[in-house]
Design a protein that fits this description.
disordered C terminus; globular; alpha/beta; 13 helices; about 325 residues
Length: about 325
């Protein structure tokens, strides 16, 4: 079992070791051609170099901690139309930077993914929204392909939600419009508002299903168990690749520090229960997440890798994850 973190790699003070940079569309459009070119080029190079430094550091950790979601701003504003000619001019210069990130990740068994944002809705009933969503998925696909992925089924994960008024039929139509590499990498996740696990399982013949157990609890008030028949269907959707589960819990002070939270007793709105905690503070829920032994777990929590490492230590203590032998626990970046 691997335990992953999302986007920001934090030191003990909660600061980023190798921060990714971003910019705004408003700022970009206010610049001259040369200034805009310089800005996008500089941020892109910085982000790719910092991704490599992050992967180098992950390679020194025990193998269960070698899992990361990469932030979507790797190439800032890539899908903004005015940025297209600028990226076309310098993107080939970045190919070696992408390639070395992918080579390092594969050599060190670091599992990587992207998670496009909430506005990437392939199941929308608005054609313009769908077209923008397709563009966004293909942007993430490009980044993964430049790192050497997209060659085999689920060698890289690009995860989205299936929410949208067109439902599964709309999602299916949009899925068929994706490039072959995108179809190999795309996964779809249940959400806490509009798209239940049962809804998402309709997509299993097309792409793997990512089970978010917190989303399921918020929506259905049910703590789904690892032996639930729907979980077997989720696993089958991965076609032999180790599936991924998303784990988060409600914010500190919202739910008890131990035991199973009862939504009726809490008297808290579902919108508030959605908010992620800083750390995984409830041992009952930690044991629940770790009981899904067939899955790797993406930790969706505000303190990122710091909270993930606490969960890892809890897992070792509970023998949910076996600690590596002392002589190999440090790993090697070479």
């Amino acid at each position: 079992m691997k335990l992953g973190f999302a986007c920001k790699y934090l030191n003990r003070e909660g600061k980023q070791f190798f921060p990714f940079r971003a910019t705004t569309r408003k700022r970009f459009l206010s610049l001259s051609h040369d200034e805009a070119y310089q800005l996008l080029h500089e941020i892109s190079v910085t982000n790719l170099n910092h991704l490599y430094l992050t992967l180098e550091h992950l390679a020194t950790l025990p193998e269960p901690l070698r899992m990361m979601r990469i932030g979507s701003d790797l190439l800032p504003l890539y899908t903004v139309p005015e940025a297209a000619p600028l990226f076309a001019a310098f993107l080939p210069e970045l190919y070696p930077l992408f390639a070395r990130c992918g080579e390092l990740a594969r050599a060190q068994h670091i599992r990587l993914s992207f998670h496009p944002g909430q506005y990437t809705v392939l199941a929308s009933d608005n054609p313009d929204v769908v077209n923008r969503a397709l563009e966004d998925v293909e942007y993430h696909t490009l980044c993964a392909v430049l790192m050497g992925y997209g060659k085999t089924f689920q060698d890289f994960k690009i995860n989205i939600h299936m929410n949208g008024k067109a439902g599964f039929d709309g999602f299916s139509r949009s899925f068929q419009r994706l490039s072959p590499a995108a179809r190999l990498m795309l996964t779809v996740e249940n959400d806490e508002i509009s798209c239940s696990l049962d809804d998402v399982l309709q997509a299993a013949p097309l792409c793997p299903v990512v089970l978010d157990i917190h989303h399921h609890w918020v929506k259905e008030a049910e703590f789904i168990q690892a032996d639930d028949p729907r979980v077997a269907r989720v696993i089958d959707s991965w076609r032999g690749v180790r599936p991924v589960l998303h784990y988060s819990i409600s914010q500190e002070g919202m739910i008890p520090q131990q035991g199973w939270p009862d939504q009726q007793q809490l008297g808290v709105s579902k919108s508030k229960l959605r908010t992620h905690s800083d750390y995984f503070f409830n041992p009952t829920l930690n044991d629940w997440a770790l009981s899904f032994q067939d899955f790797d777990i993406m930790c969706e929590v505000k303190m990122k890798n710091l909270a993930r490492e606490q969960l890892y230590q809890w897992a070792i203590a509970q023998r949910s994850i076996l600690e590596p032998p002392a002589e190999t626990a440090g790993g090697s970046a070479g």
